[in-house]
Write a structure and sequence with these properties.
Blueprint lengths: L5 H4 L4 E7 L3 H12 L4 E4 L15 E2 L10 H17 L4 E2 L3 E5 L5 H13 L5 E3 L1 H7 L9 E5 L2 E3 L1 H14 L3 E3 L2 E9 L2 E9 L5 E11 L5 H7 L6 E11 L7 E4 L8 E5 L2 E5 L3 E2 L12 H14 L8 E12 L14 E5 H5 L4 E6 L5 H16 L29 H10 L16 E3 L4 E2 H10 L5 H8 L11 H12 L4 H19 L5 H17 L8
Parallel strand pairs: 1-2, 1-12, 2-9, 5-14, 12-20
Antiparallel strand pairs: 3-8, 4-8, 5-7, 6-7, 10-11, 11-12, 13-16, 13-17, 13-18, 14-15, 15-16, 19-20, 21-22
Helix pairs in contact: 2-6, 2-10, 14-15, 15-16
Length: 542
C-alpha cells in the first residue's frame, strides 16, 4: 500500500485514553489529549468526517442565530468563532453575514435580536436595506431590515484533518475503519474497547484508563454498550448545494430559526439549509433527501436570494444533529445546542467512561477541552489546555515566500486549502502541476501529497481531503483520472480500483438524484454514458 498506513494502523495494547469518533469533536479531543502528554488512540469506524461533521453547511457561526433562543450557545459560538479565526485561518473565510427581515417578518424581532446579540458579546450592526444590497447584491431586494454580524465560512473537512494531523504530530495513534463493537468492562469500569476492522473483518481489543465517547448521534449506541442511557434526539437536516457562489456574505433570515433560513457561501459554491425533523436512530447511517424537503429549501431559499430560483443545483445531502433531548418537540429546534459532557461514574456508576456530545461544529474545540479536562482530572494530570492558542497545521506559520513561477491559479487554490503547508506539495514538474480535477484545481502533486500524508486509500477519502469531484461536474472526468493515478501510485489491481470508482460514482448519484432535473439530469446521463456505456463500470458494482 502506497500510503504511510503504518502510522495510522499501529496501536499499543494500553493507552491513557481512547477517543471514539473521527468527526471534529473526536479529532479535537485526540489532539487536546495528545498535546497534554497523554498516550492517545483515536478510533473511527469509517473515514474522518463521515458523519455529521461532513454533512453541515460549513457556517462559521457568530452565535447570532442562537442569540434569542439559546444565549449560552450564542456566547460559546462567538468565543470559538474568534478562536478559530486565529488557530485555523486556513480553514476559515471571513466575510461577515446579514440577518435580513422581509415584509412578512415582524420588525420588532430585529430589535430583540440585536439586543440579544449584544448581550452575548456578538457584534450586531443595524444597517439600511440599501447598504445591505450594496454589500451583498444577491440579497432579496424586498428586504425591509438588515443586521450585519461576524458570521463566516469554515471547511469542516480541512478543519478535522488538521486536528488529526496535529494529534499525530503530538504522538496520538489513529485507527480508521475500526468500529467499536463492544466495551471491555471489568467490575463496573470501562477498561477498553473491542474493535472490528471494517476492511478485513479482523477483531482486536485495546485497553485504556479512560474511554471518551465522541461519536455524535451514534454515541447513544456506544453508551448502551456500557449500560448507560442518553436520551438523544436524532434531528435530520437536509441541505442543497448550488453550482456557483451566488452570495459572498452569509445570508440569514431574521426570525426565530426555521426551515431554509440560511445561505452560506463556501469555496466555489453556496449551500442553503436546513430542515429539521426527528428521525429514528436506525436510519442515521443512510440519510435520504425527500422531494418535499427539496421543495421547501428551494422555495424558502429564493426568499433570501432570488437568484437561487434559476441557479443550477449540484446535489442534495442530509446530516443528523446530535441533540440531547429534553422535551417532545417534533423538530428539535427548541432543544439547546449547548455542550453536554457526561461523567458516567457520577451519573451512572460506570467508571472510566465519559461522553461528550451536543454542541455543534463551531464549538468542537471547546467540547474537546471540556472532555480532556475531565480526563486529566481523573488521571491526576495537571496540564492546561493550549488548543486555543496553538495554531493548527496549515495556520502555524506565515506562508513562505515563493517564486513568482509558483503563483499559478492552482497554487493559489492550494494556499487556500493548506495554508502554510501548501509549499510541501510537489509542483516542480509538469506532471505534478497537471490537473486531475479542473473544477477544484486538484493537481497530481496534491493528490500524491494527500495519499502519503493524509491517509487516502479510496476516491471518497480523496474527495474529503481535496474536494475532487465536488465541483460542477460532480466527478464526470476527474474521478476516472484519479482512479487511474491511484492504481499506479498504490500498485492496486484494476479490478479493485474499478470497484472503488463505481462506489464513488454511485455516491455522487445519490446526491444528484433528489435534484435530478434540467442540467443536473443531463449531466448525470452523460456520466452514466461515460462510466457505464463506455467504460463498463457497472460490471464492478458489488
Amino acid at each position: 500500500m502506497f500510503s504511510d498506513v503504518f502510522k495510522y494502523s499501529k496501536y499499543k495494547k494500553h493507552y491513557d485514553v481512547i477517543v471514539i469518533g473521527g468527526g471534529a469533536t473526536g479529532a479535537g479531543t485526540a489532539r487536546d489529549c495528545a498535546m497534554r502528554g497523554l498516550s492517545t488512540l483515536l478510533v473511527e469506524r469509517y473515514d474522518f468526517t463521515a458523519g455529521a461533521t461532513g454533512r453541515n453547511h460549513g457556517l462559521l457561526h457568530s452565535g447570532a442565530r442562537y442569540a434569542v433562543t439559546d444565549s449560552e450557545s450564542a456566547t460559546e459560538c462567538i468565543a470559538e468563532n474568534m478562536t478559530l479565526r486565529r488557530i485555523a485561518s486556513h480553514c476559515v473565510e471571513e466575510h461577515d453575514g446579514l440577518f435580513i427581515s422581509l415584509p412578512e417578518d415582524d420588525l420588532a424581532y430585529q430589535s430583540k435580536f440585536v439586543e440579544s446579540c449584544l448581550k452575548a458579546g456578538i457584534r450586531a450592526e443595524v444597517i439600511s436595506p440599501q447598504e445591505a444590497l450594496r454589500l451583498e447584491p444577491s440579497v432579496n431586494p424586498l428586504l425591509v431590515g438588515a443586521v450585519r454580524v461576524p458570521d463566516g465560512s469554515i471547511d469542516p473537512f480541512r478543519l478535522t484533518i488538521s486536528n488529526v494531523l496535529d494529534a499525530r504530530r503530538n504522538g496520538a495513534d489513529i485507527l480508521t475503519y475500526h468500529e467499536v463493537t463492544g466495551l471491555v468492562i471489568d467490575n463496573g469500569r470501562v477498561i477498553g474497547v473491542y474493535l472490528r476492522n471494517n476492511l478485513n473483518g479482523e477483531k482486536l481489543e485495546v485497553r485504556a484508563d479512560i474511554t471518551v465517547n465522541a461519536a455524535g448521534i451514534w454515541g447513544m449506541l456506544i453508551a448502551r454498550m456500557a449500560g448507560a442511557t442518553i436520551n438523544m434526539f436524532p434531528a435530520k437536516g437536509s441541505l442543497l448545494i448550488f453550482g456557483h457562489r451566488v452570495n459572498n456574505m452569509v445570508i440569514n433570515r431574521c426570525r426565530k430559526p426555521a426551515n431554509a433560513d440560511i445561505l452560506v457561501p463556501g469555496d466555489t459554491v453556496c449551500v442553503i439549509g436546513t430542515t429539521s425533523d426527528r428521525v429514528p436512530i436506525e436510519t442515521c447511517d443512510d440519510m435520504r433527501v425527500t422531494p418535499a424537503e427539496v421543495d421547501v429549501l428551494l422555495r424558502e431559499g429564493a426568499q433570501l436570494a432570488p437568484a437561487l430560483a434559476t441557479t443550477r443545483i449540484l446535489r442534495a445531502y442530509a446530516g443528523v444533529r446530535p441533540l440531547v433531548a429534553s422535551d417532545d418537540d417534533p423538530s428539535g429546534r427548541s432543544i439547546s445546542r449547548g455542550i453536554v459532557c457526561l461523567d458516567h461514574e457520577t451519573r451512572d456508576g460506570i467508571e472510566g467512561f465519559i461522553t461528550i456530545t451536543g454542541g455543534k461544529l463551531m464549538t468542537y474545540r471547546l467540547m474537546a477541552e471540556i472532555a480532556t479536562d475531565m480526563v486529566c482530572k481523573k488521571l491526576n494530570v495537571d496540564k492546561k489546555c493550549e488548543t486555543a492558542i496553538v495554531p493548527l497545521p496549515g495556520s502555524d506559520k506565515q506562508k513562505n515566500n515563493v517564486s513568482d513561477l509558483k503563483h499559478t491559479y492552482a497554487f493559489n487554490v492550494r494556499q487556500g486549502r493548506y495554508g502554510s503547508m501548501a509549499d510541501t506539495i510537489d509542483d516542480d514538474t509538469e506532471t505534478d502541476n497537471s490537473l486531475i480535477c479542473e473544477c477544484e484545481e486538484v493537481t497530481v502533486g496534491e493528490m500524491k501529497h494527500v495519499i502519503v500524508e493524509q491517509h487516502v486509500d479510496t476516491l471518497t477519502q480523496l474527495r474529503r481531503r481535496t474536494r475532487l469531484g465536488m465541483g460542477t461536474c460532480q466527478g464526470q472526468l476527474c474521478a476516472l483520472r484519479a482512479a487511474g493515478l491511484m492504481c499506479i501510485l498504490q500498485k492496486n489491481e484494476a479490478s479493485k480500483v474499478g470497484v472503488d470508482l463505481a462506489e464513488f460514482i454511485n455516491e455522487r448519484w445519490k446526491g444528484m438524484y433528489p435534484v435530478g432535473w434540467g442540467a443536473t439530469l443531463a449531466e448525470a446521463q452523460l456520466v452514466a454514458n461515460i462510466y457505464q456505456g463506455l467504460c463498463g463500470l457497472d460490471k464492478f458494482v458489488k
